[in-house]
Design the sequence.
């Protein structure tokens, strides 16, 4: 299992940068035998939540007051992606 995290500069939003980064992380993880990727995302980050879902992640939980952002404790949404090719038995 590995955790993914990505940040896209404001000026690059909507240009496919996040999709390219996440797809590269997925390809790299599968090439290295990693079966599960996880991500923790602030609930207000709707674009990131949509991106991980588009790339095959599923939301599996929410933890309250898990991340501190500029001195404010925030909830975190957790998502995971299980590979369809790593760990598959013939």
Sequence:
């Amino acid at each position: 299992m590995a955790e993914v995290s990505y940040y896209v500069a404001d000026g690059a939003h909507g240009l496919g940068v996040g999709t390219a980064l996440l797809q590269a992380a997925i390809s790299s993880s599968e090439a290295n035998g990693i079966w599960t990727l996880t991500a923790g995302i602030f609930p207000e980050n709707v674009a990131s939540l949509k991106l991980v879902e588009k790339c095959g992640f599923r939301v599996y939980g929410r933890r309250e007051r898990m991340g501190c952002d500029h001195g404010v404790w925030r909830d975190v949404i957790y998502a995971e992606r299980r590979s369809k090719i790593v760990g598959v038995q013939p």
Observations:
- The beta strands are 2-3, 36-41, 58-69, 72-82.
- The mean pLDDT is 93.
- The two ends are 21 Å apart (CA to CA).
